[in-house]
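Q: Sequence in, structure out?
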Amino acid sequence: MSASALPDRYLITPDPSAEADATATDATATDASARFDAFLARLDTALSAGITLVQLRAKTLTPDAWTALSRDALRICHARGATLIANGPPEAFDLTKPVSADGIHLNSRRLMSLSAQELELVKSTRKLISAACHDVQQLERAAQLGVDFVTLSPVLRTQTHPDAEPLGWPRFTEWVQQARVPVYALGGMRPEHLPFARTAGAQGIAAIRGLW
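A: Exactly. Output:
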């Protein structure tokens, strides 16, 4: 996907299990079919607000739960004209098998270990590739592999990774200007940070709380 076709906001969902546990009632806590109803409703609300690119981040689910949730999330995304990127449990990450999504997300470890041949398997199915980057070497590897877009983080300090040293806008800007792939700023991002990201040369912002 070309940069011109990418939106300026990239929603990364919170963990669906945590969302389900926080909203479950006694009646729904043991009802597998209703477990993720509240999560999917929140997703639909975000899409109705204009989000068109979503990463379904659900790495703690069982493969069966992941399959069911990703199918429902894809249906909701397509109904709203949005694109869904899959970031599921390790057991479900098999490039030789179909996935209920428009693309897949690579963590930085998988990005650095993935072979060009493996990536071709995904490209042959016309799936989009998103990757997580944290340094210049990973940005360069993403470009070499032909990844469609990446997140670069953490730009600012975050609640989820309070011990991670943030890049800050000056270093983020320097690295983005060296990048040969569209970059989303991730880490502490909110809608009001979008102008800063665009000025730095980024495609836009990626966020969990800030866009959910």
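Residues 3-207 form a domain with the TIM Barrel fold (CATH 3.20.20.70).
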